Amino acid sequence: MNIMNQLYFYVIVSALLGFSLNMLTIVSFWKIRELRTPGNFLVFNLALSDCGICINAFIAAFSSCGKRGLFHCCPLSLLRYWPYGSDGCQIHGFQGFLTALTSISSAAAVAWDRYHHYCTRSKLQWSSVISMGIFVWLFAAFWSAMPLLGWGEYDYEPLRTCCTLDYTKGDRNYISYLIPLALFNFVIPVFIILSIMQIVLFFLFFQFNTSLPVKSLVICWGPYSLLCFYAAVENVTFISPKILMIPAVIAKTSPAVNAFIYALGNENYRGGIWQFLTGQKIEKAEVDNKTK
């Protein structure tokens, strides 16, 4: 199995794991009454966006196998082409950016809820979390729609198996879009999560690992962000397409990582999932959003 077959096999496995865990998070929220709290709605919203990332990864993996079929050629012989045309490329790029940006902002929203829960001892109300959920989707939709309108551009990845923001040109249009995009959709969310977790750590000392949300965000999305910024100052077309694919592959692991941190890492949410799977009641009716 060559390196590209390994990468796409890794994408498929990560997407399957992430989709399964996040669908379990979503269904448990709807089925278990004890989990339906304002704070958990934000975790539900995060899981919803992460499922979208997994669907985007599935499409990319399927297209890499072409008409011969996923299970016939993968992971043995990838055809490496995009079979859905230019319009399909634009839709795929938009959907990928929409769900990815929503996922990042949703993680910041969960951190904001934890600040209220642990530090102010005042819980967010349903009206607040629903407004936050709608805002993060609309905010992500705005930035995702801009390349469709000419500010930035969606195009094929170097291996032409999926579509994303075209970072190969590095022109003024790309740079003017990239800088505010990264500021509002990566730098500020990271700053919010880092600041809030430091405050939570001050209040709770060593009760749980407050650095996990920041580390996961930086590790999963940092390499892709660095690639986009590097493309603004250097010509990336000389870099091997196989190397250029690595940051995108790492980013596609974020749904599974988020599920482990925000759902399975939450003691009472984990209990709600267990109740959904086994029918055994969870002891606490109120979720404290504790991240182990």
TrEMBL record:
This is RPE-retinal G protein-coupled receptor. GO terms for molecular function: G protein-coupled receptor activity; photoreceptor activity. It is a multi-pass membrane protein. Pfam families: 7tm_1. The keyword Disulfide bond applies. It is found in: Membrane. GO terms for biological process: phototransduction; visual perception. PANTHER family: OPSIN.
